Amino acid sequence: MIVITLTKVPNSLRGDLTKWYQEIQTGVYVGNVTAKIRDELWNRIMRDIGNGQATMVYNINNELGYTFKTTRPDREVVDYDGIPLMMHLVSADKPIKHGFSNAAKFHKAKVMSKRVESKSGEGQEISIQSKPFVSIDIETTGLDVATDNIIAIGAVKSSGIAVEKFYQLININQKIPAAITKLTTLTSEQLISEGIPLEDALSGLQKFIGDSPLIGYNVHFDESFLTASFRKTRLSILANHFYDLMPVVKKNNQFLDNYRLKTVLETYKIKNEHPHNALADAQATYELAEQLIKKRVLRF
């Protein structure tokens, strides 16, 4: 038996899950599928969750007979002598944000942009002021934040004068799966010779990003791995706000065949000659964010 709870997720994700599970109550899904399908569906949840939250409980061969996963920032799954426990953190890593919802902000921005256009004249380009941001991307040994590790971090930011870049390989002291090497071209030998300890890489990233907002594509994946890694190394958790470009693209491009980064970049005519390279993906995502800002659909 598998139980999944979802809150504040896109309706498209809810509909997708009903193909495999029964929704017995709003946001509560139960079903019984193979471990492979279960893991694939969880990966799909991680990909499409947007700013929502998800928790999954499923059968496993341990003393309790079950274990769980969660994306909630105020909870952490810990292993205590083989028994999974849900740790209730004293406070969420991020402060509660007060104010209008994203939908209300988009509506207000759309109304205001139309007012500006009517005053400025049709076809006139309006300059958009946006605070500096950092585009971020990571490569990992897999998709499970509890068992897999970050192997590369890429980030791009603009200082107003020039674009600055951050790229670091991480020595994880373990063999990289062949599938990951094929996808990213990174090898275990390369990480040993060029990589640095995770703690040093995260410290360097913190200095690079400062207090700038962080943007990414399906950024919840990056955020969950980074948060887990900062906890693992006992460094201060990032207080920066994360902005996910995927929901913005879905809202403004509703008829794409799919919303993989490759497809979206082709739609916006952005070249990425080295996909699945953390720095190249961060650079492409940065260019995507710039286009969305110019189209007045993304603001910080």
TrEMBL record:
Transport keyword on record: no
Protein's GO biological process: DNA replication
Location of the Exonuclease domain: 132-298
Record-linked CDD domains: Cas2_I-E, DEDDh
One GO molecular-function entry: DNA binding
The organism of origin for this protein: Secundilactobacillus collinoides
Annotated keywords: DNA replication, DNA-directed DNA polymerase, Exonuclease, Hydrolase, Nuclease, Nucleotidyltransferase, Transferase
Pfam families: Cas_Cas2CT1978 (PF09707), RNase_T (PF00929)
SUPFAM superfamilies reported for this sequence: Ribonuclease H-like
This protein's name: DNA polymerase III polC-type
